[in-house]
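ENCODED BACKBONE
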Amino acid sequence: MSTLSPDRLPHAPDARDHMPLHGIDHLELYVGNAAQAAHVLTHTYGFTEVAYAGLETGLRDRTSHVLVQGRIRLVLTGTLVAGSDVAAHHRAHGDGVKVIALGVPDAAAAYREATARGARGLLAPYDLYDEHGTVRLAEIAAYGDTAHRFVERGGYDGPYLPGFAEVAHAGDPSQPRLLAGIDHVVANVELGAMDRWVRFYEDVFGMRELVHFSDEAISTEYSALMSKVVTSGDGRVKFPINEPAVSSRRSQIDEYLEFYGGPGVQHIAVSSIDIVATVTELAARGVRFLRTPDSYYAGLSDRVGEIDESIDDLRRLGILVDRDDEGYLLQVFTKPLGDRPTLFFEIIERHGARGFGEGNFKALFEAIEREQALRGNL
């Protein structure tokens, strides 16, 4: 494979998909204050709380709030006691994604295939049931302290999982839907670990390497990183995996690894069907985005061709644009969601493009470096 980037790799699909995936069922975040985090995401990002578990439902060590918007389901879990695994995870990492849950047709088969192909099992298949039906779950280990949960919920019609109480809510039809789905989930791993985790997803999940970005493609004057993207055969699940590259100063990946305390999910890319309206509304609600210099927009039309959106709107909101052979995309990145410079959101709108904004890498990473410099971490 060439080291010029990006490298788009050919793929001959397997005759049999040994790990069929329905998509990302949910992301579970371990946070310091689940009620407060749920309040922020409902009132600022437009999520709706649909289910809850805690002391009132019989849990004694943790509490969880389940939020949905479009096809996105986030579970915010906090500890109720000092000695829980949730408390230990938060003490080590701060707020972060603990579980990337994948919908599967058969959780027992998925767990069996995964562990037979080298994955470390965490929880063997087990059933939860209530009056709404049965859900079968299993878990395997991923990078760092992150886990993948297999979720088989074909016969279940409850709000989330057995053991969770439905939260009654009166939907406001005047409220806009800001976010539509999860486009991809990005991991940061330590230097030298990227290829090992790419092989993990290829061997365990039957994924393929979609694209490879070298440190030549993702670099600035001061820092660099390398990235590979793995995807399921149908493209429903996409996991970019980043590692730092040797450079004169600390990259954003080095900063993340230091403050998160190891490998983990760097950001969640969520899709929008109208990114200009979405970012306008989110900014009005107090969401802080990385800023792009006005110089980026000089000659933008010449670089990316004709687009439907107003360049003035994109400049005003700091939205980036990139084009590939199949279309164009628009993207913008929030500042970190918490006190640590770790987890953040990407908002993305695709118009045919299947890439990840490689034409924007330099502008994006220079914007991140400006934030790093303000934090004294560059």
Observations:
- The CA atoms of residues 18 and 27 lie 23 Å apart.
